[in-house]
Amino acid sequence: MKTIKELINESLTEVAASKDILRDENIRRVYKECPDLKEIDDQILNVRNSRFIAVIDKDERLIKRFDIAEEELQTKREKIMKINKIDPDFDSEKIICDKCNDTGFAKGSDGTVKVCSCRKKELEMCYEYSGMADYTSYKMKNYRDDYLGDPSGRKKIKNELLKALLGLSDNNDKSSLWVYSAPPQTGKTFLSVCVCKTAINLGRSAYYAKCEDLQTVGTDTLEDLKRIDFLVLDDFADSVTLFNNVGSVLNSILEVRAASKLPTVLVSPFPKSELVNKCDMRISGKLASANLISKESR
Ligand SMILES: [Zn+2]
Fold first, then answer.
1. 105 alpha carbon – ligand 1 mean position (Å)
2. pTM score, two decimals?
């Protein structure tokens, strides 16, 4: 899997190339409009090359002559530029996106540094690499706190998930494992995907997967899941952990992540107490000390 930082880094080569092309095109256009300028610039180049040879020959008299020649040419050049109203920076590279200065990250109006709007393509690609290819339409701005008529409860859950992602907690020795428990049909998947996308938007590495898919995930992805900044595992249920090796895969993921204090969210339609009682024993031990995100949680 590729992280958003890696994707943006790759795109920077592309940006550099297009800046170079734009610069060349600009120079060609200006020279076409003003052949006198091209003439002078060619002469300056010649003088500089000749001066270079004079330097090697240590011919002080000649060096001085070329210096004076260049000075005269520069004065002429300035005049031509002024008369023809040519931008003095016409031959330098221009920034393509002034929002992010072509770095791919920019400070938003809310003060947080996010992926710049000029990197939408990379962002969508990253969502796809991060398990969210099936959820292209899920966007945080479409998450309505008042959906199902429970604005404060839904807002609270959203904020708790964002806090988990940012590693903000009121208690220092809190577990880095979170259980987000809410009844079916309450928009858990929508919110989980949106929070995962938010993580990527903030430049973090993140992944969204259904718990049962852990049985088919490749070794490379599995290693990634152990080390990425934020992991959300949806449709978590005690039964899932008891079949097809999911319990053991999940256990190894959780162990590595807990050691590095990397936040992991298990999303489940079942109450935490029930999960603790019925899960694969190794998982159940970890669940017992996990943080709870639910409407009732405090
Ligand atoms: Zn930008």
1. 7
2. 0.83
